[in-house]
Amino acid sequence: MAEAALKAADDTQDLTDGFHLIIDALKLNDIKTIYGVPGIPITDFGRMAQAEGIRVLSFRHEQNAGYAAAIAGFLTKKPGVCLTVSAPGFLNGLTALAHATTNCFPMILISGSSEREIVDLQQGDYEEMDQLAIAKTMCKAAFRVLHAADIGIGVARAYRAAVSGRPGGVYLDLPAKLFGQVMDAAKGKKSLVKVIDPAPAQIPAPAAVKRALDVLKAAKKPLIILGKGAAYAQADEAIKTLVEKSGIPFLPMSMAKGLLPDTHPQCAGAARSTVLKDSDVVMMIGARLNWLLSHGKGKTWGDAPKKFVQIDIEPREMDSNVEIAAPVVGDIGSCVAALIDGMGSSWTKAPSDWMGAVTAKRDENVAKMAPRLMNNNNPMDYHGALGVLRTIVKERPDAILVNEGANTLDLTRGVIDMYKPRKRLDVGTWGVMGIGMGQAIAAAVETGKPVLCIEGDSAFGFSGMEVETICRYNLPVCIVIFNNDGIYRGTDQNKASSDPATTVFVKGARYDKMMEAFGGVGVHATTPDELKRAVNAAMDSGKPTLINAAIDPAAGSESGRIGNLNPQSQLKKK
């Protein structure tokens, strides 16, 4: 339709249309990849974007495309773009948009939509929905473009909103008529906007830096907590310098693992309980005192009085759960650099007896765990399987690890050490299921590195059909499914009827056959040794591979480490 309109126009005038203006606006701002699902009214847009050199990856479900775009934003510090059709497709992408906002990942969800005049009168258009109104409740910002001449501004506003300040998800609504609108090509080119310095440095106040250093200087048992915001900031060397110059033990949250190696002498990951309970000053860098840190209070944090230093770009984050004695507001790179400068050359490191106590507890816990990771049981348990994967990751530190599940997430996070930043991707703040395949695809596309994706069998079910996408694009992704026949474990029983228990799946399911069906490599592994050989072969070959790792159905616990979040019935069992 748009092409016909261009041909019918005056031959003496160079014209462009909404399709091409959107593509040109994205390219002008260095957007090179789009994740999405084609359909009315954006099918032609995907084709044209592909023809113009943008890589367009077509998924089987919009939610998975959205998770890919979100993690692309985390990895690149540029907005990941997800493209969906209207109404149902938009809604499918909305979960990922909200996930990106909650996790502070820059992402733009672009959706086609029905025309305003029909939506507002509720006249029953194809997939009619007031998408902008719905999206506003789920993301950082939302915009609608009605005229081709405003496309440049619309894309620029979405880009800047996604990455400035605290990053997040942005919705860009494009009604169907917009794509076919025609205008003078020269004027169209002039209307485009290249975003300059979309995420400018935000320098902390000198008084805030001094206050934070004074609190740290007085500490007897200080602790640094590194969050995924610190990993996103890509201020890796500065953070390393701060940690090592201060001599303070550090605790990495899961997606901050590898900012400094988990084997670093100051890493307190294996002594988490001890450092949270016993510390007297806690400095958080890009971490929030949300449920993942028990809101900064309660049994997790013990009885020792604590002062908190918090570095965050969002001032409203301060005092969200407990009093912050020394808030430092600014971007992480600038804040850490200012702290290092303020420490000078005569800074006294954290007390050696504190670091010694942390090291002793860490070494004790590591020694206790070591024998469990060396078994070659058949059927496998989680620890035997993770023991061999732990070694593989150590031998391949550049590979990206994607991880989700309940027990599979919790145990993998604790067992597998990371050695480089932004190499571990997982469910993030919401703890959602289903991120696995989308994140694995985006990680391979954005980094060019091999991907090892460790999935629980339940988690895999949310996005498993995307193995076809992995095969179609021939991506170097090795998926390992810890298959214990159910959610948490496959041994629950329904005593009320012949239906299976709600947490039980088909016994002995062979997920590896799914991968074979699409031309990938499928492997069934029953022992840690078999698993080790299969993963190494997959990582060496770079071929799409799915390994069905048969885990003892009785292995696993209710909800992993967060079983305490389940409400308990107060009625006595008869």
Physical arrangement of strands within the biggest beta sheet: 3-2-4-5-7-6
Which fold name fills CATH's third level, the topology of the largest domain? Rossmann fold
Mean pLDDT: 95
Strands, count = 19
Q: CATH class of the largest domain, anyone?
A: Alpha Beta
* Derived structural class: alpha/beta
Q: Helix coverage percent of residues?
A: 25-40%
What is the CATH architecture annotation of the largest domain? 3-Layer(aba) Sandwich
Rg result? 25 Å
Name the shape in a single word.
Answer: globular
**Strand content bin:** 15-25%
Kindly report the name of the CATH homologous superfamily of the largest domain.
Thiamin diphosphate (ThDP)-binding fold, Pyr/PP domains
Quickly count the helices: 23
Question: Span from first to last CA?
Answer: 69 Å
Number of domains: 3
Unreliably modeled segments: none
Q: Main sheet, how many strands, which sense, barrel?
A: 6 strands, parallel
